[in-house]
Specification:
Length: 41
Amino acid sequence: MSPPAGWMSEVDPDRGTVWVCVDCVRENLRSVEARLDQAWW
């Protein structure tokens, strides 16, 4: 089963794969972007 469109997955060493809903992704987008390698940009 795949998550609904727009959901994001993150892998946590303790909890495994965690799915994050669209609203939470939007609320935390800046935090996610801040963790990307500079080479990404």
